[in-house]
Design a protein that fits this description.
The chain is an alpha+beta fold. The chain contains eleven helices and twelve strands. The strands form two sheets. Strands 4, 5, 6, 7, 8, 9, 10, 11 and 12 form a nine-stranded mixed beta sheet that branches. Strands 1-2-3 form a three-stranded antiparallel beta sheet, with helices on one face. Helix 5 runs antiparallel to helix 6 (191-210) and helix 10 (339-346) packs antiparallel against helix 11.
């Protein structure tokens, strides 16, 4: 039965036949039904029984009587094989959950994996998130490395949780930093919004932890950079090892923005494309943006307008909408070379706002007078 993949039925007269058909004694018939399923290799259902002496007249009647039992057993076999196959697929999928984001698993559910994971060009929003305070904390915990690892894992868990909960894909880890992206494997019209909301959620959770001295993440903060644009996403790597990630200049730009959060004292920095999309498509009740400066990072040839992503105006917000307007007017004056006016407008922004210190310090360095060769661009010497 297992060799042919078909049921086999034997009926004999135990009073006459001396042939051995079964290991059980006092039986008149036996059949075997294979369980045809990749999840049940070599499996079969074996059934044996006897006839009452006066019930059937001949072997034909006995065979016909067993057909219903055989059909029922074949139905049980098919059901068993299907259930086992589902269990195997569930286990395989569960084993992949730590390697693939939910949106990737969803795309893989009904499509060819090679087609889904094949690298392709697409528009994406990329988020880089890096821990602040890790170096200092690691020095203090040099004799408690396992405890430090647990805390860093918890911090990375905050990042990945919000990336995944907002429909993103975790593309990579870089030490104490994580990278997520949106726009693959399924295109999304609101990918930039979801990336920004994930960044704000990460910032908020770290701020809540910092307000609790006993919290395991109290000494950690996060710097985040978001950039949007074309990239190649999918299964990327070498013959020996691959991973699902994203590749292109937009990824490098997001990483640069994240690194600039230290200098500009802004928790979340975004590029100009992301800034324009948020202003056009997202309600200020969800998030806000303000242009911060026009800079030329080290190693780049094209100046970059960087903006800060801010939460909606509310009781816990440091900056009101009026403060943002005042800052952006100051930036316009600064770019135009009218540094005295820019300095005056910056004083309308709360002193607690550390972002304005970047422009204020630059203006003060030059005694509120723009250099003769001023082009509106601040060069950043280090990456």
């Amino acid at each position: 039965a297992t060799r042919t993949g078909e049921s086999v039925l034997h009926i004999w007269n135990r009073a006459v036949s001396q042939s051995t058909y079964t290991q059980s004694e006092n039986v008149d018939w036996a059949f075997c039904t294979p369980v045809v399923s990749d999840a049940c290799p070599g499996w079969a259902i074996y059934v044996a029984g006897d006839f009452a002496a006066s019930t059937y007249n001949d072997v034909g009647d006995e065979s016909e009587a067993l057909q219903d039992d055989l059909k029922f057993t074949e139905l049980v076999s098919t059901t068993l094989g299907s259930l086992r196959q589902v269990r195997v697929l569930q286990r395989r999928q569960d084993s992949l959950r730590n390697f693939f984001s939910p949106i990737v698993l969803e795309a893989l559910a009904n499509r060819d994996p090679d087609q889904v994971l094949a690298p392709r060009e697409t528009d994406v929003a990329v988020l880089f998130c890096d821990l602040r305070g890790f170096s200092k904390t690691s020095e203090a915990a040099a004799d408690r490395l396992l405890d430090l690892l647990t805390r860093v894992s918890d911090a990375l868990g905050v990042m990945t949780h919000h990336i995944l909960s907002h429909g993103g894909v975790v593309g990579d880890f870089h030490g104490d930093a994580a990278m997520g992206f949106w726009g693959w494997p399924l295109q999304s019209s609101d990918m930039i919004q979801q990336a920004c909301l994930a960044a704000l959620a990460i910032r908020h959770e770290f701020e809540l932890a910092s307000a609790q001295p006993e919290h395991p993440l109290a000494n950690f903060r996060a710097g985040l950079g978001i950039a949007s644009g074309p990239a190649v996403a999918g299964r990327i790597g070498t013959r020996d090892q691959v991973k699902v990630t994203v590749f292109g200049p937009v990824v490098n730009l997001a990483a640069r923005l994240e690194s600039m959060t230290k200098l500009l004292q802004a928790p979340i920095l975004i590029d100009e494309t992301t800034d324009q999309w948020i202003r056009q498509h997202v309600s200020p009740e969800l998030c806000r943006v303000r242009k911060v400066a026009k800079v030329l990072p080290a190693g780049m040839q094209t100046p970059l307008v960087v903006s800060e992503l801010l939460p909606a105006d509310g009781p816990g917000s440091l900056l009101s909408n009026q403060h943002i307007v005042a800052y952006e007017e100051a930036l316009e004056a600064f770019l135009a070379g009218n540094w005295s006016e820019a300095f005056r407008l910056l004083h309308q922004v709360p002193a607690e706002d550390q972002v304005k210190d970047f422009l204020t310090f630059t203006i003060a360095q030059h005694r509120r007078v723009a250099p003769p060769d001023w082009r509106g661009v601040i060069e950043i010497p280090n990456k």
